[in-house]
């Protein structure tokens, strides 16, 4: 049933009379109502759209604010980690991935890492952060980030080479099925890496080096290769913050009391057992050392003539020989002498002469509360890192044996401006000590001869000795990285000195 439409009009008598609308008027009012309704709908939709736009803008502003705050926080973190702007990232076509397992003690691994970064850079491959040796004599399970500042290592070298903490997922799945592993040939030049290693990386995409020690030649390499080795060693390989902070504290403690000398007294039980040198040891100790030498199958030499080896200058100096040497060289009786080493074999009995000559004899264990060393104590490489830093910072460094730490610290000190490093000539020391103890020469003569023998062995600028075809007998690159140093015109060391060092190196190379 429909409703009729009507209109009201006033009559002559003033009353309202209802009259029906005409069809024409009805349609007019219907159209007007629909128009008003449509207008209201459009306005409502416009208001909703404006509200949505406002909400979207507000959310966008909040999102941008959040991103800005995160970037600001990241910037503050980066600036607190790195003391200078990071170098621009080098862009290059990646030829593959290089994984490496470092071998040996701390400083043997350190040098190897420098070489592997250099190889990766000039082959245009991506290096995966090196694994450290957990199978060596010292049973230290520390990994790269436990000893070195891995974030700084990666970021500071990004203008040279891409370094990742681990393989990307696709390559990780691939090596899970098959990984091409090999030890690169020792003392190789870059031609070997270009002609042999690069094609293997391009073929297999990922190659794993089982060893890193001495895999790059000392000499005959382009200057830019040598300079990158230096940059990695002396600038990029910064110790992990906990090690760095504690090492800096040790240096502050020492400097607060005046100048200090670091003595790398390589007279721990393992070194004495391996070397077969038993000068000053009693029968019980000699028996104990011999049993230890025979217990380790990778220590090849078993029957050793201690007397002859010592006279040839191939034994680590004893604490007693060291004390006489330092006194004869005129080292101040009151200077602090920091022993950078593990437990000295024979303990206080063997240190008595040295302590009498230098009463300010200290170690990290005597300078720090036990609680501060506890986190590092069962990690020999971390403890060695503390000693390395202190040795580099000292006024004078004196190694008593030509092992890897002695060599790498010597080179680091040369890089820092030829800081004084007394390189004791073990054969000359033994000859002079025996003459003095036998009463054949006076103290004055002994001291004079000792000073003369070491006049050119104070870390002076010197040319690196090159012996073609005999890399083990020539100067180690990291002992004297002359391409990275100031000019020099001093004479080189004699060949006898390098034979002493080569014998000391055999200890590290004898590891499995």
TrEMBL record:
Topology class, membrane: Single-pass type II membrane protein
Molecular function, one GO term: glycosyltransferase activity
Single GO biological process annotation from the record: fucose metabolic process
UniProt organism field: Gossypium gossypioides (Mexican cotton)
Biased composition (Acidic residues): 502-512
Protein name as it appears in the record: O-fucosyltransferase family protein
Stretches the record annotates as Disordered: 487-512
GO cellular component: cytoplasm; membrane
Keyword Lipid biosynthesis: no
Subcellular locations according to the entry: Membrane
Signal sequence, start to end: none
Principal location class: membrane
Pfam families attached to this UniProt entry: O-FucT (PF10250)
Family: Belongs to the glycosyltransferase GT106 family.
Pathway the protein acts in: Glycan metabolism
